[in-house]
Amino acid sequence: MVDISTSGLIRQPARIERRATTGRQATRLTPEKLPAGVRLLGPAIVLVIWEAASRLGFLSPGTLAAPSTALWSGYEMLMDGSLLPHLAASAGRAYSGLLLGVVAGVVLALLSGLTRTGEALIDGLVQIKRAVPTLALIPLVIIWLGIGEAMKIFLIFTAVLIPVYINTHAALRGIDIGHVELARTLGLSRAEFIRHVALPGALPGFFVSLRLAVALCWTALVVLELINTQTGIGYLMNRARDWGQTEIIVVGIIIYAVLGLVSDALVRLLEQRALSYRRALGS
User: Fold this and answer.
1) Where would you find the membrane-spanning parts of this chain (predicted)?
2) pTM exceeding the 0.85 threshold for the entire prediction
3) CATH classification of 66-282 is 1.10.3720.10, yes or no?
């Protein structure tokens, strides 16, 4: 008996050592979180190369303006008041379509994810729309709504709705069955189940969809503002193209990029606060 016990004691540290080794390997293979600002290293290098190519004459202003020239042009437009009205018009279109798409996507996901009737009526239609590019609907929507603001907001709405629905619906379907059984045991009503189980369980998928939706609302707007508009960043870029003003085109691209990145950062901050309980449980 002594030999068996001793051999067991000898083998146990080996098992612990193997587990520790595996843990160290997993730690090395898992990338650590980058410090703040390091993610901007790549864009900064591209800007430096771009500026150097322009100053050395490898890149002509008629082909692409230098970043410094574009930034100065943007500053002048901001100071003379010609930029802010167009910026406000673009933001109004993008965020109006985003809000409508997010609300509709969440509501449809709840109806489809929590009821069989809703899934039978809704999911097939959404999957069909998912297969049809939003920009392919432009000619038909112009016939329906004209070429005004309603058309642009509606197309942004349809572009945003799909990722919100898909990810939220998948998150609802992935809720732990144990939570569902516990809700039944406690006798929760339908409204209480949605509030205390369904919505919290769908939050991770919803925030993934919201980040996709924020990006889509701006990418869709880039194209839509080239269609018969008199205001907006896309209108400025289209007019600058006619006059060969590449610095203003670059200003528009930078504005779209900054607005998209800032919106994504705000969503990530909201996600961290809303899902802070997950970090608390994991610690």
Assistant:
1) 95-114, 135-166, 206-227, 248-270
2) no
3) yes
